[in-house]
Specification:
3 domains; alpha/beta; 44% helix; Elongation Factor Tu (Ef-tu), domain 3; 5-stranded parallel beta sheet; globular; Globin-like; Rossmann fold; 6-stranded antiparallel β-barrel
Length: 404
């Protein structure tokens, strides 16, 4: 439903500080960076005190308790500021695209950026005190406004592509089937009777945000990758981890309703059938890869496909049977298929250098932070693989992988 705008990179690179503000940001970036992990908890504390509805109905409380959301904001602001003052800094476009997609999947609207602004700058002053001179405040104000402007523009484009008003992404989803895939993963199939066709335009690799009402009345949201989708609805796989997953597994029965947002996400399978595809996942990260494999089979063309998956054991590989079936189908269509399954319970680890992997491939990664960091580090040490692109989805809100 939502697709990445081609103008995002241009918008990010077009963002410019005035020369005076650039000098101030360059001089103060080490200080701000050194204290950003002190600033962000203060920011969230202040914002949720003033707007408790945001923590109750929009922000994921589990990420707040673990500190993951604070780290994400810190990484985002620091990365964008670095780009503004250092032409050799990592390109923030992947980070900005991921943030924009997450925002539209939560129904974030432009007015909420002012709320963030007010409490973020109050937190900076609270932590840094007199070090925040009028000149420093003005320079960092411009950093924030530039970043917010890029994000609001991208989010507006995503809403426009979907043909909806900003924030109008929630649909009423009815559970029509559930089945256990493993002892810890259950598959849920929902239909969206009041919005037929809402998921028909989903792209392989995208996700939906599911919102459930908890016992204390809060509506908590979490993203789940789409396994299957059609004009009637969609299927996701849920592993017990956090409040939303727990509520889905323990309290949602066939016939019950939840909030579901229109598909979003920029981990989207490319359509150039001349480029090899490498799908790398761990644990429940196999879910978006299943959707991609199904799309490759439906394309009915010969492709070069490598699947690398890491799990505790064959029994814990939730999408194991369907993955093998899809790979067999691709082979029957004439595709070149490589499959590498690694079982951590047997002491096995994904070691890219020991595998037959084509050069110049598009890489798609999904899994835990440590797993993805390890894969990215291995890719950096194997220049002969020269990936055409590296695309990834994270299980947490962190964006520290961007540019590394």
């Amino acid at each position: 439903m939502f697709t990445a705008a081609e103008t995002l990179r241009g918008a990010a690179r077009a963002a410019r500080l005035t020369p005076a503000h650039e000098a101030t940001v360059r001089a103060t970036l080490p200080v701000i960076g050194a204290h950003i992990n002190e600033i962000t908890p203060v920011f969230y504390r202040r914002m949720f005190a003033a707007h408790p509805e945001l923590l109750r109905d929009t922000f994921n409380r589990g990420n707040q308790r673990s500190g993951e959301q604070q780290k994400a904001l810190a990484a985002s602001v620091a990365t964008f500021a670095s780009m503004l003052v250092d032409p050799d800094a990592p390109d923030p476009v992947d980070m900005l695209s991921r943030i924009a997609h997450k925002h539209v999947s939560l129904g974030v609207v432009a007015d909420q950026y002012q709320i963030v602004h007010d409490h973020l700058f109050a937190a900076i002053v609270e932590v840094l005190g007199d070090a925040v001179t009028p000149e420093v405040a003005e320079a960092w104000e411009q950093v924030y406004q530039l970043m917010a402007g890029v994000l609001v523009g991208e989010e507006s484009a995503l809403y426009g592509t979907a043909g909806v008003e900003p924030g109008d992404v929630f649909r009423d989803a009815v559970l029509v089937a559930r089945r256990d895939l493993t002892d810890v993963v259950t598959e849920f199939t929902f239909e969206v009777p009041d919005a037929p066709g809402a998921f028909a335009a989903a792209q392989p690799g995208q996700y939906t945000s599911l919102g459930v009402r908890l016992g204390d009345g809060a509506r908590q949201l979490r993203q789940y990758s789409l396994v299957n989708w059609d004009g009637r609805g969609f299927t996701v796989a849920v592993q017990r981890d956090g409040e939303v997953s727990g509520a889905l597994l323990d309290t949602i029965a066939v016939g019950d309703r939840v909030d579901a947002t229109l598909p979003a996400g920029d981990l989207v399978l490319g359509d150039d059938d001349t480029v090899p595809v490498v799908l790398v996942s761990s644990g429940i990260g196999s879910t978006p890869m299943t959707g991609m494999l199904a799309a490759l089979v439906a394309g009915a063309g010969a492709r070069d496909v490598t699947v690398i998956h890491s799990d505790r054991s064959p029994d814990s590989f939730a999408q194991g049977a369907v993955t093998v079936g899809l790979l067999d189908a691709l082979e029957s269509q004439g595709s070149t298929v490589r499959r590498y399954f690694n079982w951590t319970g047997r002491g096995q680890r994904v070691v890219l250098g020991t595998r037959d992997i084509p050069a110049g491939a598009d890489w798609y990664l999904c899994g835990g932070n440590g797993f993805l960091q390890d894969v990215r580090a291995q890719l950096a040490d194997l220049p002969e693989l020269c990936p055409a692109g590296i695309h990834f989805e994270l299980f947490s809100p962190n964006d520290w992988l961007t540019g590394q």
